[in-house]
Amino acid sequence: MPQINEIELKKQLGSGDFASLYFLYGEEKYLIRHYVSLVIKKTVDPSFADFNFHRYDGKEIDFDEVGQAAEALPMMSERTLILIKDLALDSLNADLTDKFIKLISDIPDTTVILIANPSLDVNMKSAKGKKILAEVNRFGCSVEFSHAGLSDLIKLLERGAVSRGCSISSSNARYLLSLIGDDMTVIINELDKICAYKRDGEILKEHIDAVVVKNIQARVFDLTKALTAGNCDLAMDILDTLISMKEEPVNILGALITPYVDMYRAKIYVSGGLRAEDAAKDFNYKNKEFRLTNAARSASKYSVAQLRTFLDVLNDADRLLKSTSVSGRLVLEQTITKLFLVANGEKI
Question: What global pTM score does this model have?
Protein backbone atom coordinates (compact mmCIF):
# COMPACT_ATOMS: atom_id res chain seq x y z
CA MET A 1 0.00 0.00 0.00
CA PRO A 2 1.16 3.59 -0.53
CA GLN A 3 1.70 5.92 2.39
CA ILE A 4 -1.65 7.13 3.73
CA ASN A 5 -2.66 10.33 5.52
CA GLU A 6 -4.49 10.92 8.78
CA ILE A 7 -7.91 11.07 7.12
CA GLU A 8 -7.41 7.67 5.47
CA LEU A 9 -6.17 6.22 8.75
CA LYS A 10 -9.34 7.46 10.48
CA LYS A 11 -11.47 5.79 7.80
CA GLN A 12 -9.70 2.46 8.22
CA LEU A 13 -10.03 2.51 11.99
CA GLY A 14 -13.66 3.63 11.80
CA SER A 15 -14.64 0.89 9.35
CA GLY A 16 -12.66 -1.85 11.06
CA ASP A 17 -10.89 -2.61 7.79
CA PHE A 18 -7.43 -2.79 9.36
CA ALA A 19 -4.15 -3.19 7.55
CA SER A 20 -1.84 -5.87 8.95
CA LEU A 21 0.93 -3.32 9.55
CA TYR A 22 0.98 0.35 10.58
CA PHE A 23 3.98 2.62 11.06
CA LEU A 24 3.21 5.96 12.73
CA TYR A 25 6.03 8.50 12.83
CA GLY A 26 6.79 12.19 12.49
CA GLU A 27 7.12 15.41 14.45
CA GLU A 28 3.62 15.55 15.94
CA LYS A 29 3.96 13.19 18.88
CA TYR A 30 0.54 14.06 20.31
CA LEU A 31 -1.24 12.65 17.27
CA ILE A 32 0.94 9.55 17.28
CA ARG A 33 -0.02 8.85 20.90
CA HIS A 34 -3.66 9.59 20.09
CA TYR A 35 -3.80 7.06 17.24
CA VAL A 36 -1.89 4.43 19.21
CA SER A 37 -4.63 4.66 21.85
CA LEU A 38 -7.31 4.51 19.16
CA VAL A 39 -5.82 1.42 17.47
CA ILE A 40 -5.61 -0.33 20.86
CA LYS A 41 -9.23 0.59 21.62
CA LYS A 42 -10.43 -0.67 18.24
CA THR A 43 -8.48 -3.95 18.17
CA VAL A 44 -8.06 -5.16 21.77
CA ASP A 45 -10.77 -6.59 24.01
CA PRO A 46 -9.66 -5.55 27.52
CA SER A 47 -10.93 -8.87 28.93
CA PHE A 48 -8.36 -10.77 26.89
CA ALA A 49 -5.59 -8.17 26.59
CA ASP A 50 -3.15 -10.37 28.53
CA PHE A 51 -3.37 -12.94 25.73
CA ASN A 52 -3.85 -10.81 22.64
CA PHE A 53 -1.91 -7.58 23.25
CA HIS A 54 1.91 -7.66 23.14
CA ARG A 55 4.12 -4.59 23.72
CA TYR A 56 7.79 -4.22 22.78
CA ASP A 57 10.43 -1.53 23.24
CA GLY A 58 12.00 -0.71 19.87
CA LYS A 59 15.32 0.04 21.54
CA GLU A 60 15.63 -3.57 22.74
CA ILE A 61 13.76 -5.40 20.00
CA ASP A 62 14.01 -9.13 19.34
CA PHE A 63 12.28 -9.75 16.00
CA ASP A 64 12.35 -13.51 16.52
CA GLU A 65 10.30 -13.07 19.70
CA VAL A 66 7.94 -10.68 17.94
CA GLY A 67 7.51 -13.20 15.14
CA GLN A 68 6.45 -15.90 17.60
CA ALA A 69 3.88 -13.56 19.13
CA ALA A 70 2.57 -12.66 15.67
CA GLU A 71 2.01 -16.32 14.83
CA ALA A 72 -0.06 -16.98 17.96
CA LEU A 73 -3.80 -17.20 17.36
CA PRO A 74 -5.91 -14.67 19.29
CA MET A 75 -7.91 -16.00 22.23
CA MET A 76 -11.66 -15.25 22.16
CA SER A 77 -11.01 -12.26 19.89
CA GLU A 78 -10.63 -11.46 16.20
CA ARG A 79 -7.11 -10.10 16.40
CA THR A 80 -3.75 -10.10 18.09
CA LEU A 81 -2.18 -6.65 18.40
CA ILE A 82 1.58 -6.18 18.57
CA LEU A 83 2.78 -2.70 19.54
CA ILE A 84 6.43 -1.74 18.97
CA LYS A 85 7.32 1.68 20.37
CA ASP A 86 10.21 3.91 19.27
CA LEU A 87 11.81 1.68 16.67
CA ALA A 88 14.64 3.42 14.76
CA LEU A 89 13.77 1.99 11.35
CA ASP A 90 16.13 4.43 9.66
CA SER A 91 19.21 3.00 11.37
CA LEU A 92 18.70 -0.79 11.63
CA ASN A 93 21.82 -2.78 10.78
CA ALA A 94 21.76 -5.29 7.92
CA ASP A 95 20.91 -8.28 10.12
CA LEU A 96 18.02 -6.52 11.87
CA THR A 97 16.76 -5.15 8.56
CA ASP A 98 16.55 -8.66 7.12
CA LYS A 99 14.73 -9.93 10.20
CA PHE A 100 12.34 -6.99 10.14
CA ILE A 101 11.44 -7.49 6.48
CA LYS A 102 10.93 -11.20 7.08
CA LEU A 103 8.59 -10.37 9.97
CA ILE A 104 6.39 -7.89 8.09
CA SER A 105 6.30 -9.92 4.86
CA ASP A 106 4.28 -12.74 6.38
CA ILE A 107 1.90 -11.31 8.99
CA PRO A 108 -1.06 -13.62 9.71
CA ASP A 109 -4.55 -12.31 8.90
CA THR A 110 -5.40 -12.38 12.61
CA THR A 111 -2.50 -10.12 13.61
CA VAL A 112 -1.99 -6.34 13.45
CA ILE A 113 1.52 -4.97 14.01
CA LEU A 114 1.60 -1.33 15.09
CA ILE A 115 4.99 0.43 15.04
CA ALA A 116 4.74 3.89 16.59
CA ASN A 117 7.38 6.46 17.50
CA PRO A 118 5.82 8.73 20.15
CA SER A 119 9.23 9.72 21.53
CA LEU A 120 11.76 8.99 18.79
CA ASP A 121 12.46 10.99 15.63
CA VAL A 122 13.50 9.09 12.51
CA ASN A 123 14.75 10.26 9.13
CA MET A 124 12.74 8.29 6.59
CA LYS A 125 13.99 10.55 3.78
CA SER A 126 17.55 9.20 4.01
CA ALA A 127 18.58 6.47 1.57
CA LYS A 128 18.20 3.75 4.21
CA GLY A 129 14.99 5.33 5.50
CA LYS A 130 13.40 5.42 2.03
CA LYS A 131 14.32 1.80 1.41
CA ILE A 132 12.81 0.47 4.63
CA LEU A 133 9.75 2.74 4.27
CA ALA A 134 9.09 1.24 0.85
CA GLU A 135 9.05 -2.22 2.45
CA VAL A 136 6.63 -1.02 5.14
CA ASN A 137 4.29 0.39 2.50
CA ARG A 138 4.62 -2.78 0.47
CA PHE A 139 3.17 -4.88 3.26
CA GLY A 140 1.17 -2.31 5.23
CA CYS A 141 0.64 1.42 5.78
CA SER A 142 2.79 4.27 7.03
CA VAL A 143 1.49 7.61 8.28
CA GLU A 144 3.72 10.65 8.80
CA PHE A 145 2.43 13.18 11.31
CA SER A 146 3.99 16.57 10.62
CA HIS A 147 3.40 19.71 12.66
CA ALA A 148 0.18 21.40 11.63
CA GLY A 149 0.30 24.81 9.97
CA LEU A 150 -0.38 28.01 11.88
CA SER A 151 -3.98 28.37 10.64
CA ASP A 152 -4.80 24.77 11.60
CA LEU A 153 -3.34 25.25 15.08
CA ILE A 154 -5.35 28.44 15.57
CA LYS A 155 -8.53 26.53 14.64
CA LEU A 156 -7.51 23.74 17.02
CA LEU A 157 -7.21 26.24 19.87
CA GLU A 158 -10.51 27.88 19.00
CA ARG A 159 -12.35 24.52 18.93
CA GLY A 160 -10.51 23.26 22.00
CA ALA A 161 -11.41 26.36 24.02
CA VAL A 162 -15.10 26.00 23.11
CA SER A 163 -15.13 22.31 24.09
CA ARG A 164 -13.74 23.35 27.51
CA GLY A 165 -16.40 25.99 28.10
CA CYS A 166 -14.28 28.96 26.99
CA SER A 167 -13.50 30.87 23.82
CA ILE A 168 -10.41 32.45 22.30
CA SER A 169 -9.97 34.87 19.41
CA SER A 170 -7.69 34.01 16.52
CA SER A 171 -5.33 36.85 17.48
CA ASN A 172 -4.99 35.57 21.05
CA ALA A 173 -4.62 32.01 19.79
CA ARG A 174 -1.80 33.24 17.58
CA TYR A 175 -0.23 35.01 20.55
CA LEU A 176 -0.42 31.82 22.63
CA LEU A 177 1.29 29.86 19.84
CA SER A 178 4.08 32.43 19.70
CA LEU A 179 4.77 31.64 23.36
CA ILE A 180 4.59 27.86 23.30
CA GLY A 181 5.46 26.82 19.74
CA ASP A 182 3.68 24.32 17.50
CA ASP A 183 4.04 21.06 19.43
CA MET A 184 0.49 19.77 19.83
CA THR A 185 1.18 18.04 23.14
CA VAL A 186 2.34 21.33 24.63
CA ILE A 187 -0.57 23.20 23.04
CA ILE A 188 -3.20 20.89 24.54
CA ASN A 189 -1.53 20.92 27.95
CA GLU A 190 -1.33 24.71 28.02
CA LEU A 191 -4.91 25.08 26.81
CA ASP A 192 -6.07 22.76 29.61
CA LYS A 193 -4.25 24.92 32.17
CA ILE A 194 -5.57 28.20 30.79
CA CYS A 195 -9.18 26.96 30.64
CA ALA A 196 -8.94 25.57 34.17
CA TYR A 197 -7.71 28.99 35.29
CA LYS A 198 -10.33 30.95 33.32
CA ARG A 199 -13.18 28.41 33.89
CA ASP A 200 -15.48 30.05 31.34
CA GLY A 201 -15.78 33.02 29.02
CA GLU A 202 -13.26 34.50 26.62
CA ILE A 203 -9.55 33.84 27.08
CA LEU A 204 -7.68 37.14 26.84
CA LYS A 205 -3.99 37.93 26.60
CA GLU A 206 -3.87 38.66 30.33
CA HIS A 207 -5.15 35.17 31.11
CA ILE A 208 -2.51 33.62 28.86
CA ASP A 209 0.23 35.67 30.49
CA ALA A 210 -0.98 34.64 33.94
CA VAL A 211 -0.57 30.94 33.17
CA VAL A 212 2.03 30.47 30.43
CA VAL A 213 5.63 31.08 31.44
CA LYS A 214 8.63 30.34 29.22
CA ASN A 215 12.25 31.33 29.59
CA ILE A 216 14.36 32.71 26.77
CA GLN A 217 16.08 29.38 26.03
CA ALA A 218 12.75 27.59 25.64
CA ARG A 219 11.31 30.34 23.49
CA VAL A 220 14.37 30.50 21.22
CA PHE A 221 14.32 26.71 20.93
CA ASP A 222 10.77 27.03 19.59
CA LEU A 223 11.95 29.79 17.25
CA THR A 224 14.63 27.45 15.89
CA LYS A 225 12.09 24.63 15.50
CA ALA A 226 9.80 26.97 13.58
CA LEU A 227 12.66 27.89 11.23
CA THR A 228 13.75 24.29 10.61
CA ALA A 229 10.10 23.41 9.99
CA GLY A 230 9.88 26.20 7.40
CA ASN A 231 7.46 28.32 9.44
CA CYS A 232 8.99 31.78 9.16
CA ASP A 233 5.75 33.50 10.28
CA LEU A 234 5.74 31.64 13.60
CA ALA A 235 9.46 32.40 14.07
CA MET A 236 8.75 36.11 13.64
CA ASP A 237 5.83 35.90 16.08
CA ILE A 238 8.09 34.34 18.70
CA LEU A 239 10.68 37.05 18.09
CA ASP A 240 7.96 39.71 18.59
CA THR A 241 7.11 38.13 21.94
CA LEU A 242 10.74 38.07 23.06
CA ILE A 243 11.22 41.72 22.11
CA SER A 244 7.98 42.73 23.86
CA MET A 245 9.28 41.01 27.01
CA LYS A 246 12.33 43.31 26.90
CA GLU A 247 14.77 40.47 26.20
CA GLU A 248 18.12 41.83 25.04
CA PRO A 249 18.72 41.12 21.32
CA VAL A 250 22.27 39.92 22.07
CA ASN A 251 20.85 37.33 24.51
CA ILE A 252 18.27 36.19 21.97
CA LEU A 253 20.97 35.77 19.34
CA GLY A 254 23.23 33.91 21.78
CA ALA A 255 20.47 31.42 22.51
CA LEU A 256 19.74 31.10 18.77
CA ILE A 257 23.37 30.32 17.92
CA THR A 258 23.52 27.28 20.23
CA PRO A 259 21.24 24.86 18.30
CA TYR A 260 22.92 25.74 15.00
CA VAL A 261 26.37 25.04 16.46
CA ASP A 262 24.99 21.72 17.77
CA MET A 263 23.70 20.84 14.30
CA TYR A 264 27.01 21.69 12.64
CA ARG A 265 29.06 19.61 15.10
CA ALA A 266 26.68 16.66 14.82
CA LYS A 267 26.70 16.82 11.01
CA ILE A 268 30.49 16.90 10.79
CA TYR A 269 30.88 13.91 13.08
CA VAL A 270 28.21 11.87 11.29
CA SER A 271 29.69 12.80 7.90
CA GLY A 272 33.03 11.51 9.17
CA GLY A 273 31.57 8.11 10.01
CA LEU A 274 31.22 8.77 13.74
CA ARG A 275 28.20 9.11 15.98
CA ALA A 276 26.88 12.56 16.75
CA GLU A 277 27.31 11.78 20.46
CA ASP A 278 31.06 11.36 19.92
CA ALA A 279 31.32 15.14 19.74
CA ALA A 280 30.52 15.19 23.46
CA LYS A 281 34.04 13.92 24.14
CA ASP A 282 35.65 16.88 22.39
CA PHE A 283 33.22 19.60 23.47
CA ASN A 284 31.50 20.41 26.73
CA TYR A 285 28.33 18.28 26.48
CA LYS A 286 28.54 16.42 29.79
CA ASN A 287 25.03 15.20 30.64
CA LYS A 288 23.78 17.00 27.50
CA GLU A 289 24.56 14.35 24.88
CA PHE A 290 20.85 14.32 23.97
CA ARG A 291 21.38 17.72 22.36
CA LEU A 292 23.71 16.17 19.80
CA THR A 293 21.33 13.30 19.11
CA ASN A 294 18.48 15.71 18.45
CA ALA A 295 20.76 18.01 16.47
CA ALA A 296 21.80 15.15 14.19
CA ARG A 297 18.16 14.55 13.33
CA SER A 298 17.59 18.23 12.55
CA ALA A 299 20.85 18.53 10.60
CA SER A 300 20.06 15.55 8.36
CA LYS A 301 17.96 17.77 6.08
CA TYR A 302 20.83 20.21 5.48
CA SER A 303 24.17 20.00 3.70
CA VAL A 304 27.43 20.88 5.43
CA ALA A 305 27.60 23.96 3.18
CA GLN A 306 24.17 25.11 4.37
CA LEU A 307 25.13 24.63 8.01
CA ARG A 308 28.31 26.66 7.48
CA THR A 309 26.25 29.41 5.88
CA PHE A 310 23.90 29.39 8.88
CA LEU A 311 26.90 29.98 11.15
CA ASP A 312 28.21 32.75 8.87
CA VAL A 313 24.81 34.49 9.05
CA LEU A 314 24.75 34.21 12.84
CA ASN A 315 28.36 35.41 13.11
CA ASP A 316 27.58 38.48 11.00
CA ALA A 317 24.57 39.23 13.21
CA ASP A 318 26.67 38.85 16.36
CA ARG A 319 29.26 41.28 14.97
CA LEU A 320 26.57 43.83 14.04
CA LEU A 321 24.91 43.67 17.45
CA LYS A 322 28.17 44.08 19.34
CA SER A 323 29.97 46.66 17.22
CA THR A 324 27.32 48.92 15.65
CA SER A 325 24.28 50.92 16.70
CA VAL A 326 21.95 49.15 14.24
CA SER A 327 18.54 48.28 15.72
CA GLY A 328 18.78 44.93 17.46
CA ARG A 329 15.27 43.99 16.36
CA LEU A 330 16.12 44.76 12.73
CA VAL A 331 19.28 42.64 12.91
CA LEU A 332 17.33 39.71 14.35
CA GLU A 333 14.53 40.00 11.78
CA GLN A 334 17.07 40.05 8.94
CA THR A 335 18.90 37.11 10.49
CA ILE A 336 15.72 35.01 10.76
CA THR A 337 14.87 35.81 7.15
CA LYS A 338 18.35 34.82 5.97
CA LEU A 339 18.27 31.56 7.96
CA PHE A 340 14.90 30.76 6.40
CA LEU A 341 16.19 31.45 2.88
CA VAL A 342 19.31 29.31 3.37
CA ALA A 343 17.20 26.48 4.78
CA ASN A 344 15.18 26.53 1.56
CA GLY A 345 18.28 26.35 -0.62
CA GLU A 346 18.28 29.98 -1.69
CA LYS A 347 21.34 32.18 -1.96
CA ILE A 348 21.66 35.29 0.17
Answer: 0.63
